[in-house]
Amino acid sequence: MQMITGFAQCAQEKEVRKYFSEGVELAKGIISEFTDMLLEDGIQPPLGPGGNATRSTAAPFSDKLMMYCISLFCSFSIGKNAIGTAFSLRNDIPAKAAIFTKDIFEYAHRGAKIMIQNGWMEEPPQMEERRNLI
């Protein structure tokens, strides 16, 4: 969450800043819901690594690279949710993780559209449409 906050405050493109800000809110919601779920059962939630985003607005990377990093983090999050649900012994965690996976996927999809619009991502290779070739 801190990294995406830092990205949001230094992104050059207005649309990219807005996208990162939406990501911060998504992350806050996920963290809050999982924290509440654990606290309700008397389980101490794990503490994240310390540190905060600095006050700097100087971009350490291009918007293109920051968008790519967030795309990777979304992919990692979706995979992590899948593994977590497979090994969870609780009924409520996989249900919540499924909802979050959908939200993360939709967020990543919006990011992909921004990257395509700005020419930062190419269309992936496609299979030949055999019916059109015959």
Give the biggest beta sheet: none
- β-strand percent reads under 5%
Spatial separation of the terminal alpha carbons? 51 Å
Helix content: 55-70%
- Number of helical segments with 4 or more residues: 5
Overall radius of gyration: 18 Å
Roughly what is the average pLDDT, rounded to an integer?
A: 91
Shape: flat
Could you give the topology of this structure?
Layout: H1 2-10, H2 14-40, H3 63-87, H4 92-117, H5 130-133
Task: Tell me what you see in this structure.
By secondary structure, the protein is mainly alpha-helical. Helix content is 68%, strand content 0%. Helix 1 packs antiparallel against helix 2, helix 2 runs antiparallel to helix 4 and helix 3 packs antiparallel against helix 4. The termini are far apart.
Features:
flat, 134 residues, mainly alpha, 5 helices
